[in-house]
Write a structure and sequence with these properties.
The protein is 29% helix and 24% strand. It has 282 residues and is an alpha/beta fold.
Amino acid sequence: MTPLEPLYEVDRGESVVLPPELASLYGRFQFPRPRGRPYVIANFVSTLDGIVAFSEPGHTGGAPISGSNEHDRMVMGLLRAVADAVLVGAGTLRSGPEHLWTAPHIYPELTDSYRALRSSLGKSDPPVNVIITARGEIDPSSRLFQSSDVPVLIVTSTEGLKRIRALGVPQSVQTVAIQDSVRLNARSILDAVGRVVPSHLLLVEGGPHLLADFFAESCLDEQFLTLAPQVAGRNGSGERPGLVAGRTFAPEHPLWGTLVSVKRGGSHLFLRYAFSPKAERE
């Protein structure tokens, strides 16, 4: 794999010292200084026409979108390696029941570098995998729940908690109920995670409905977006969601990001946008 080519970058605060192999492949990696709360980032891959997931059996997850791109998997691993927790919705879990949201799982070739990075940041364990499910609609046989290699937290509603308990999820899986509503709000999710997981950096990896909630409540600080050079198309026969789903912002309340980084790996572009909290935008 060739190193990513930096096309545009602005100063983002403190540099994260990467192990030599990661530093060579990714280049400069910075995050703003802590502000007394967890810094929340998201990472998605999209086609040129804005599709982030297919609903067709056998074509779920990000691999069909990116073309199983090696640079994309390297970046996914890097972001997981620095995160204290990775947040995913139950739909994302159902689309990848064998997946573990850790750096070595997505790009095992750099396992040693990812582990060295986590160790240098004082993070000895893998990031906590946080599953968001208001209704408690999970499969307890999913690898994530049966594996003892990854700490897991389920954030759900009071009704969802009853359902999860009835399913017989292993005792090693922590579960917390935060609301009675069938749609959990982003701030309550962050508060619940913060009570269980001491966090400086949280990573949201899906899906589009969960990301929409984080945007709607001004809970997202940065969006990492891999732009894959394919056009997928839509014909209305199946769901092919974009980056966010279930909410609209523009034209009444558009959310504008600030471009802070562009890197190129072959024909794939790796974009990074900063989003200000609502109070800073007004």
